[in-house]
Amino acid sequence: MLYFAYGSNLHHFQMKRRCKDSIFLKKINLKDFKLTFRSKYRAADIEAKKNSIVPGALFEISKSDEKKLDVYEDFPILYKKHYFNYYGKKVMTYTMVKKSPFKFPTERYLNVVKKGYQDCKLDKRFLLKALRT
Which domains, ranges and CATH numbers included, belong to the chain? Predict the structure, then answer.
């Protein structure tokens, strides 16, 4: 199955540790969404926004990887699954259930996301823009 990561799961080492079968395929942009941070966990989330993009990574994951991600993402309490089409293929990602106000991420979490942006060669300007929300 295809999975779109946009937060801490962009970090290749962490993702591999969490999902042993995962394979990083390539970086892609999710159109008409924007990146933000929210909840008591100050974690990454995406929300619909016209003419905006969220850079992220496309991974191939197994069923057991998906189950591990469900636990990590606190599905279905904190995050729900969101599906979209990418060149005719179904891709799964997670979005927060409650769209609470913006909360600046912790330094530790933000460093993991920054490392993930490096690992996937993503444009950091999108991350910096999300932090200025």
Answer: 2-128 (3.10.490.10)
